[in-house]
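ESCALATION

Customer reports they have been waiting on this structure for their group meeting. Please prioritize. Original submission:
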Amino acid sequence: MDKQIEFLIKLRDAGQMIADAANEYLDAFAPPEAKDAKQSVAVQEATFSILRFEPQQGAKLGEYEIAYRAGNLEDKWRSAYNILCNSNATMQNRYHGEGYQYSYWLYGEDRIYRQKLKPKPSS
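Update from on-call: job pushed to the front of the queue and completed.
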């Protein structure tokens, strides 16, 4: 039974790697206007808020949170991770959408970071 589960996990992960590679390849050929439209549409924040985040404190970043792969349901974590990965979400290019309370990014393996967004000044 363990071998069957291990096989299915490897098969799933390989399929996801193929899908990620295809998305990156497609993005390389997409016209700039298509990339701009794609980035302006974000998924629901619930995709990320369903994860279990642990509070952290850093000298430069201040307060932020980390969701570890091992501490979350694999399918929920993988879905959020793939969105951030496909969006090239980094600390300098954080992922968030209209109405989001947090910005999200990847750094290192098996970790998703988030930090509370600062409120926009009212004009």
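Sent to customer with the following note: The longest helix spans residues 2-29.
Escalation resolved.
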